[in-house]
Design brief:
By secondary structure, the protein is mainly alpha-helical. Helices cover about 75% and strands about 0% of the residues. The protein is built from 27 helices and no strands. α3 runs antiparallel to α9. The longest helix is centred in the last third of the chain and has 61 residues. The protein is elongated, with a radius of gyration of 36 Å. It comes from Deinococcus enclensis. It is a multi-pass membrane protein. Keywords: Membrane, Transmembrane, Transmembrane helix.
């Protein structure tokens, strides 16, 4: 028997108004939680020493919230919107507080250190945050007619834009003036305000239909996404792409996806009803939103990192520098939402946004290590213009194309696909950046004594000081060269361990290795032996030989003084000349230790001067090389993002055009979806 759909509830204008305000506060809270952290991330990973886990701070949040999106949609159908929303806010606030505590000394090595603690706490916050946006959009669909939803959807998109404007600014300000921890604590007062408005002011919204939670489907979502994200994160960085670990994770994810599809096709209360995919606007729209959100997160995640590490701006400044991007996003989001509300024509705005997004991403590939902020601003503005229409139009169109009885499920699952796109985008572009750094950094960095730069050991402080012009890098290089100088001095003094270390040092020139490991001593010995032989031969010739030595520019002054002191009669006969020659030669050879000390002193003095000059040169080369290498890595990443945007645009070409509903009285819209697919949607008139 076909169940009779519930009659839509009626709400007074004041109830709608206060609910809309409450939903906007909730939506702002959820959006801020994603945007306030970005400008603080460079300082966070620097303090917690976790650059290789940079993307996982975002990925864990998105993964937890993404998996919970369809679950909260179903739970709200079973138990009502309001209690699920309250639960989500409470869990989100707990997670935010735990994020602020990550890495505190009293936590020690719990969960493997501060970075892992932060990742786990972000997952808790994401677990709660999923309810915020999902239930907010669902309540919007419950209380307002579709034409109003289009207008308010644009307003919510603008609210998201506002959060992306004030979020980075607030996050940067708190990081500069207090601590990065306050970027998480700042969620608490706004969250408590939202909680009060929900409990005290929002009207009771009864549950819409029966059924049960699809626990097995939820489990398979987890076992599909987690191995996939791990493979995308570890591939090419921790393990080779063709290695057993990555291939095994991908195979496990694929097997779990197949199992998920089988289970969902046989489950009455499926978490994502597969028959919804027979609605073209649902399937194609979600695919386009999924792809575009991959590119979206590839853009916004790493712009603050580029600005702080390459352009040398502060966290606060990097937050305000996001204004052009968010200004463009807000502009087109509001304009598109209002125009679509009046005309019902959404596809031209989607396509125009996709084209502008591609052009904006292409413009970002033109940034360099010397790009100025004004030059960056217009590129970011273009990206924002392209992103704006995608923030609400897909949801509006999908809500108009699915039956009213499945509005909550369709809305939550649509949000699920967009968020899973963002989650995959965070993982993919994080991996791309790490792989790019491993390739680009060696191309731009000189060899530094005692240092090695790779994707797993990025020195965030060195990168940041390179961007700000600090001399920290120069001090480290000077210290490394001083240590190397001391080792060379020990080797010249005969220290066998120091000589062995120098021989094993691949960064030292072969000539310097040879000199420090016995070459200088052998050189002094050869020089004195040759000099002694020359003096012996010359003095054996008598007075004429002495005069030859005195006239030679190669004879040291000290030796000339001694030669002049020889009495003439000592060189009068061959026998006496030979005796004097032998004594002189032996005297010269006896001075070998002193000569070696003098040569060592001269060599070390010259080496010290050379090392000091090298430290200055290397510091400049490392600072510029870090900025150039990081910029080249980001540019390559944006080139990859273009392909995702192009793919999203191609999919959008196939988005069907349907009429946006102008009311909730459409009978077909309220009918349940039959087994063989949805009935055609006929928009209500008048």
């Amino acid at each position: 028997m076909t169940a009779t759909p519930p009659t839509p509830a009626s709400f007074t204008a004041p109830e709608k108004k206060i609910t809309l305000i409450g939903l906007m506060v909730v939506f702002l809270l959820a959006a801020l939680s994603q945007n306030i952290v970005g400008t603080a991330m460079p300082r966070i990973v620097e303090e917690l020493n976790g650059f290789s886990l940079y993307a996982w701070v975002t990925t864990s949040y998105l993964l937890a919230s993404t998996v919970m999106v369809p679950i909260y949609g179903k739970l709200s159908d079973l138990y009502g919107r309001k209690p699920i929303l309250v639960f989500g806010v409470i869990v989100f606030l707990i997670g935010s507080a735990l994020c602020g505590l990550a890495g505190e000394p009293w936590l020690g090595n719990f969960l493997g250190g501060g970075m892992n603690q932060l990742i786990a706490a972000r997952a808790v916050a994401g677990f709660g945050a999923a309810a915020l946006i999902t239930i907010a959009f669902t309540i919007l669909g419950d209380m307002f007619e579709p034409a109003e939803r289009a207008r308010f959807g644009g307003l919510f998109g603008a609210m998201f834009g506002l959060s992306t404007v004030i979020g980075p600014v607030i996050g940067g300000f708190l990081t500069d003036n207090l601590s990065w921890r306050w970027t998480f604590y700042a969620n608490l007062p706004l969250g408590l305000l939202a909680l009060f408005m929900i409990i005290a002011k929002m009207p009771s919204l009864s549950h819409r239909q029966g059924g049960k939670v699809d626990v097995l489907g939820t489990l398979f979502i987890l076992t599909t996404t987690i191995p996939l994200l791990l493979a995308l994160t570890w591939g090419g960085v921790t393990y080779p792409w063709t290695g057993g670990v990555i291939l095994g994770l991908l195979a496990a994810s694929l097997a779990s996806l197949v199992a998920f599809l089988v289970v969902e096709s046989r489950t009455k209360d499926a978490i994502i009803p597969l028959n919804l995919f027979r609605v073209p606007i649902y399937s194609v729209g979600n695919l386009a939103g999924f792809i575009l959100n991959i590119a979206f997160f590839g853009v916004i995640m790493f712009l603050p990192l580029y600005m702080q590490l390459v352009l040398g701006v502060s966290p606060t400044k990097s937050g305000t520098s996001m204004l052009p991007l968010m200004g463009g996003l807000i502009l087109t989001s509001i304009v598109a939402g209002n125009v679509v509300a009046r005309t019902g024509k959404y596809k031209p705005w989607m396509l125009a946004g996709g084209v502008i997004l591609i052009f904006g991403l292409w413009s970002l590939t033109g940034i360099t290590a010397h790009t100025t902020l004004p030059d960056l601003y217009w590129r970011m503005f273009l990206v924002g213009l392209g992103l704006g229409p995608t923030q609400s139009l897909f949801t509006i169109a999908i809500q108009s194309g699915v039956p009213q009885a499945q509005l909550a499920t369709a809305t939550s699952s649509s949000q699920f696909f967009r968020q899973i796109g963002g989650t995959i985008g965070a993982a993919v572009f994080g991996t791309l950046l790490m792989n790019n750094l491993a390739t680009e950094m060696p191309r731009h960095l000189p060899q530094v004594p005692g240092a090695q730069m790779n994707a797993k050991s990025i020195d965030m402080k060195a990168l940041r000081t390179a961007g700000t012009g600090s001399d920290t890098t120069g001090q480290k290089i000077q210290a490394a060269l001083d240590e190397q100088y001391a080792q060379i001095e020990q080797a010249l003094n005969g220290d066998a361990a120091a000589q062995a270390a120098i021989r094993a040092n691949a960064q030292l020139p072969a000539e310097l290795k040879a000199l420090a490991t016995g070459g200088l001593k052998a050189q002094v010995h050869r020089t004195l032996t040759a000099q002694a032989d020359a003096v012996r031969r010359a003095l054996s010739a008598g007075e004429a030989g002495r005069n030859t030595l005195l006239a030679s520019a190669e004879t040291p002054d000290a030796l000339k003084t001694r030669l002049r002191a020889i009495p003439a009669q000592a060189l009068a006969t061959p026998q006496s000349s030979a005796a004097v020659a032998g004594q002189f030669a032996q005297g010269l050879l006896a001075q070998e230790a002193a000569a070696y000390d003098q040569a060592k002193t001269r060599a070390l003095a010259g080496l010290k001067t050379k090392f000091d000059e090298q430290a200055t040169t290397l510091a400049a080369q490392v600072s510029s090389g870090m900025k150039e290498g990081f910029t080249a890595s980001v540019v390559r990443m944006y080139r990859d993002a273009i392909w995702f945007a192009v793919a999203g645009l191609i999919v959008m070409l196939f988005v069907p055009v349907i009429a946006i509903r102008t009311g909730q009285k459409s009978a077909p819209a309220a009918a349940p979806v039959p087994a063989d697919g949805p009935e055609p949607v006929t928009p209500a008139r008048g």
